[in-house]
User: Which sequence fits this backbone?
Protein backbone atom coordinates (compact mmCIF):
# COMPACT_ATOMS: atom_id res chain seq x y z
CA UNK A 1 0.00 0.00 0.00
CA UNK A 2 1.22 3.48 -0.83
CA UNK A 3 0.69 5.99 1.93
CA UNK A 4 -0.74 9.26 0.70
CA UNK A 5 -2.28 12.41 2.04
CA UNK A 6 -5.99 13.20 1.86
CA UNK A 7 -5.16 15.20 -1.29
CA UNK A 8 -3.58 12.15 -2.89
CA UNK A 9 -0.07 13.61 -2.69
CA UNK A 10 2.57 10.98 -1.96
CA UNK A 11 4.11 11.01 1.50
CA UNK A 12 7.61 11.68 0.18
CA UNK A 13 6.36 14.90 -1.44
CA UNK A 14 5.27 16.33 1.91
CA UNK A 15 8.42 17.95 3.19
CA UNK A 16 9.43 20.89 5.33
CA UNK A 17 10.86 22.48 2.20
CA UNK A 18 7.51 22.16 0.40
CA UNK A 19 5.74 23.70 3.40
CA UNK A 20 8.21 26.60 3.54
CA UNK A 21 7.75 27.21 -0.18
CA UNK A 22 3.96 27.36 0.28
CA UNK A 23 3.45 24.31 -1.91
CA UNK A 24 1.26 22.37 0.53
CA UNK A 25 -2.44 22.69 1.19
CA UNK A 26 -4.40 21.61 4.27
CA UNK A 27 -5.46 18.45 2.43
CA UNK A 28 -1.78 17.61 1.93
CA UNK A 29 -1.30 17.23 5.69
CA UNK A 30 -4.61 15.45 6.38
CA UNK A 31 -4.55 11.68 6.56
CA UNK A 32 -6.43 9.80 3.85
CA UNK A 33 -9.37 7.47 4.34
CA UNK A 34 -7.38 4.62 2.79
CA UNK A 35 -4.46 5.06 5.19
CA UNK A 36 -6.82 5.03 8.19
CA UNK A 37 -8.55 1.90 6.91
CA UNK A 38 -5.16 0.24 6.43
CA UNK A 39 -4.25 1.14 10.03
CA UNK A 40 -7.63 -0.20 11.20
CA UNK A 41 -6.95 -3.54 9.50
CA UNK A 42 -3.52 -3.72 11.14
CA UNK A 43 -5.01 -2.92 14.55
CA UNK A 44 -7.64 -5.59 14.12
CA UNK A 45 -5.04 -8.19 13.08
CA UNK A 46 -3.07 -7.39 16.23
CA UNK A 47 -6.13 -7.91 18.43
CA UNK A 48 -7.00 -4.25 19.05
CA UNK A 49 -10.66 -4.32 18.04
CA UNK A 50 -11.56 -1.03 19.76
CA UNK A 51 -8.67 0.83 18.14
CA UNK A 52 -9.69 -0.64 14.79
CA UNK A 53 -13.24 0.66 15.23
CA UNK A 54 -11.95 4.11 16.23
CA UNK A 55 -9.77 4.21 13.11
CA UNK A 56 -12.72 3.15 10.92
CA UNK A 57 -14.83 5.97 12.36
CA UNK A 58 -11.94 8.36 11.70
CA UNK A 59 -11.84 7.12 8.10
CA UNK A 60 -15.54 7.93 7.74
CA UNK A 61 -14.94 11.40 9.08
CA UNK A 62 -12.49 12.22 6.28
CA UNK A 63 -15.52 12.64 4.01
CA UNK A 64 -17.10 15.26 6.26
CA UNK A 65 -16.64 18.97 5.77
CA UNK A 66 -14.50 20.42 8.58
CA UNK A 67 -17.40 22.54 9.90
CA UNK A 68 -19.65 19.47 10.12
CA UNK A 69 -16.98 17.49 11.96
CA UNK A 70 -16.39 20.28 14.49
CA UNK A 71 -20.14 20.71 15.00
CA UNK A 72 -20.41 16.98 15.75
CA UNK A 73 -17.64 17.18 18.36
CA UNK A 74 -19.36 20.15 19.98
CA UNK A 75 -22.77 18.46 19.94
CA UNK A 76 -21.35 15.40 21.69
CA UNK A 77 -20.06 17.32 24.69
CA UNK A 78 -22.23 16.68 27.77
CA UNK A 79 -25.16 19.06 28.25
CA UNK A 80 -24.73 20.61 24.78
CA UNK A 81 -27.51 18.85 22.87
CA UNK A 82 -30.98 17.46 23.26
CA UNK A 83 -31.79 13.85 22.47
CA UNK A 84 -33.53 14.94 19.26
CA UNK A 85 -30.56 17.07 18.19
CA UNK A 86 -28.26 14.08 18.57
CA UNK A 87 -30.66 11.94 16.53
CA UNK A 88 -30.60 14.62 13.80
CA UNK A 89 -26.80 14.61 13.91
CA UNK A 90 -26.82 10.83 13.46
CA UNK A 91 -29.08 11.22 10.41
CA UNK A 92 -26.70 13.82 8.91
CA UNK A 93 -23.76 11.49 9.48
CA UNK A 94 -25.67 8.66 7.80
CA UNK A 95 -26.27 10.94 4.80
CA UNK A 96 -22.48 11.34 4.51
CA UNK A 97 -22.06 7.52 4.58
CA UNK A 98 -20.56 7.80 8.09
CA UNK A 99 -22.65 4.95 9.46
CA UNK A 100 -20.31 3.86 12.27
CA UNK A 101 -20.09 7.47 13.46
CA UNK A 102 -23.87 7.77 13.30
CA UNK A 103 -24.24 4.63 15.40
CA UNK A 104 -21.82 6.04 17.98
CA UNK A 105 -23.91 9.24 18.21
CA UNK A 106 -27.10 7.21 18.69
CA UNK A 107 -25.45 5.21 21.47
CA UNK A 108 -24.19 8.43 23.06
CA UNK A 109 -27.68 9.96 22.94
CA UNK A 110 -29.11 6.97 24.77
CA UNK A 111 -26.30 6.94 27.34
CA UNK A 112 -26.55 10.72 27.88
CA UNK A 113 -30.31 10.41 28.35
CA UNK A 114 -29.85 7.64 30.92
CA UNK A 115 -27.19 9.64 32.81
CA UNK A 116 -28.91 13.04 32.65
CA UNK A 117 -26.30 14.62 30.37
CA UNK A 118 -28.65 16.15 27.79
CA UNK A 119 -29.61 19.80 27.52
Assistant:
Amino acid sequence: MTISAHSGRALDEITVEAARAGQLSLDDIRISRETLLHQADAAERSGSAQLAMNLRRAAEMTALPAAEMLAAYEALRPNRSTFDELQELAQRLDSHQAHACAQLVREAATAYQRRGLLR
